[in-house]
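Example record for the data management plan.
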Amino acid sequence: MLISYNWLKELTATSLTPLELRERLTMVGLAIDGVEEKDGDSVLDVEVPSNRPDCLSHVGIAREVAVIESGEIRSPSSKPARVQGRATELTSVEIRDTDLCPRYAARLVRGVKIAPSPAWLTKRLEEIGQRPINNVADITNYVLHELGQPLHAFDFAKLDGKRIVVRRATASEKLKTLDGVERMLVGNMLVIADANRPVALAGIMGGENSEISFQTTDVLIESAYFSPDSVRQTARKLGMDTEASRRFERGADCENVLRAQNRCVDLICEIAGGVATEDAIDVYPSPLPARSIAFRPARVESLTSLRVSETEMKRILTGLGNVHTEESLTVWKCVPPTWRIDIEREEDLVEEIARHFGYDKIGSELPPSNQSGEHQPKELKIRRLRRMLQALGFDEAINFSFVDVAHDNQFELVPEFNSQNSEHSFIELKNPIIENEVRMRPTLIPGLLNSLRHNLNHGVRSVRLFETGRVFAKSDSGELPNEREALALIATGGASEESRAQAPRETDFFDLKGSLEAAVAAMNRGPLRFTKAQAKHLRDGQSARILLADGTPIGSLGKLADAVSDVYKFRQSVYVAELDLTRLLATEELPAQYEPLPRYPSVIRDLTILVDRQITLEELLATIEEQQVDDCLGAQFVGTYEGANIPEDKRAVTLRIEYRSDERTLRDEEVEERQRSLIDSLLHQYSAQLH
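Corresponding structural encoding:
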């Protein structure tokens, strides 16, 4: 926002220099990015916070300057307009969608002479980066920058039916705006129309079909208040960004409508001539109620440690437009001004006092506490999880908590959300900060896939990423959303090994599975179980369901399906996993147990059997454990073989069995007897063959 120092001086009679203003305004929360000298004036580039639309004008900045210097604002004035006739005798205004336009005012000025603006007006607009057009258009822009209220002037002769209708657009309507672009409108866009057609995009830009020209003699001045959400959505869908839309998007002052319109009409009659109607048609069916906040002066010190006198508090609040009365010795009733839409609660009033009294006067000290600090219960566990994954070569990713609607029903969600995987279960944002990303994420996978694509596009072929964060879904109660902490991993490219510049092989399913198991074990949780399953985003036959030891499903793991890979244009195998970290952390922590080193040696026997392809490793290991063979410590997977001399519906699975006694060294014949018993059980149960 560019602010003219000379203009500001007319409003406040400030004695501060431009450089002093830069310092003082920055200290009250309005950072000045720069000060530029222009033709006898200084232009301040003010960085206005998103919640302070009242400062998008010279009067708004002047209020802050007046409080800084304990001064007053000089209200802008001009020669009163010549008036004749009532507006209702010449035109009419109808608001069909009051939810999008709560207030609309129209006033006519007849007999104007459209011409170039006077030198002082042209100079003032050019200093703040505004291109002069003609006297009427320049006056509307001047008042916009002076009072912060967007205005628009219509050529009254070009309005069919000589009337204004504020309504939603129809699906087939088009409008060629003042920038020469024909816009295709949709039904939720608010337009200003005459009797037959749209003539302006509400709060954004006027149309060419009602543009002021040098042949114009009668103008209709629009001043209105439009819904911020409506203006924001329309501007983003059409790719438009105007001075008017920036102010309406943040929230204009609904009570400034007539004041700005009167100022504009007076200037038009003074500069362009003409006669104004005696009044304006002001359609305001439901006036906004005044806000009232109970304010306790003692809260200033309790929240900020600043000791501010009540006299100084009253000066600051009154100077900023707040009206207050004392309800008691300890509580004031404060009514915020209509232009301060950001003041909603007592803490906001405390902030107003603190920033003008001086943030720099707030001391640095720790709050008093009778207890020592401590970690949250899950914090240390997740820290161990991160360290293990980092040791395994994973980098941590942090992505936005919202996703595009294109991801709806594309991924298998964690089991807690899987039954709700429908359009009605997603959390939709009313005011998304990124276009099209209107969903709170129900899964972490889309964010990791975008991060992976970014790495691959920059030539990084081997990528291992993990992310922990919250996922969201609507709750059955319909109030607060259901939130779960989730963990997701993604891996692709070579399976790198320490001290080797080139990966000896490609990353596979078992690399990701092993990394996940190691990370879970680092938190003293588990062990995890894996069963064959199908998932929307994973390839059939290379996907698994992740289970807790008691069989509770908590997630999925596998190779990314070709349909999803094609969307992201991945040309190499990608493996992903996601699980419900909240559910995992709720399980009982495994005790740390001491086990002495064995006194007697182990005996290892490898076993290779030919089994049906449908038999899983988990089933084989479970069967071995169920047999409870004497001195058998367990079995480990060695590998599989499929190919020559093996039927297509079979595969050879090699297991390594370990035997050891805690009492003596086992003899070979004892081991062979136990091994034969185990083999017979496996061959019988699975109709298998030794290989």
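Summary line stored alongside the record: The radius of gyration is 36 Å.
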